[in-house]
Amino acid sequence: MVMARLGYGVRLLGRDCLAQTCAGRSVERSVIRWRSMTSEVRPASSQLFSVEQVQAGISALAAAGYDTETVWEQRVVWGDHDQFQHVNNVHFVRWFESARMWFANQLCQTPEFSDQRRQEINRGTGKSFILAGINVRYRKPVLYPDTILIGQACQLPLAKDRFILRAAAYSLAQQTIVAVSAQDCVTYDYTKLAKCDIPDDIRKALESRATHFDKKL
């Protein structure tokens, strides 16, 4: 294996790493020992929770009315903590945001959507939807290390030009839902920079992943 990085004169020759600074300073040699890795081998940090625990989390979200095909997995990092020694509340909003974009991506992965429509919906170049507001209710504090599963579903009934996307954050460490949200999404024509009625293709896709929620947040 030979790899060169211009500007710093770094080359990897087999297992030897020769590093030389561009200012002509002393040459440093070090030996890098490589451990063969296969696609089945994963670091210990990614094996904190078993497949059975993940499946139990998805089943719990399904029992609460959320779509199992658009579940988003979010790992908690140490830097998410604040001075009160738990994950800061603002991170939940970001997690729900990432999950919402994954929901939009999966929403248009059916034959009814052309490649152009997928691009319009996911890149905001045609008729898509945007967030008008979000309400989050926090049930339990979250601590590192943990992995969060976010389940989502469109709330019935849909309005003319908007819909409510409901979501729940399930903690694998605590084995329960730790936060829920209601996101007010408005359909928007990015070419006209104005609200629009929910397009037929989006409405049909949303209704296929929708449910009636008996409880408010």
Automatic annotation (TrEMBL):
CDD domains: 4HBT. This is Thioesterase domain-containing protein. GO terms for molecular function: fatty acyl-CoA hydrolase activity. Pfam families: 4HBT_2. InterPro entries: 4-hydroxybenzoyl-CoA_TE, HotDog_dom_sf.
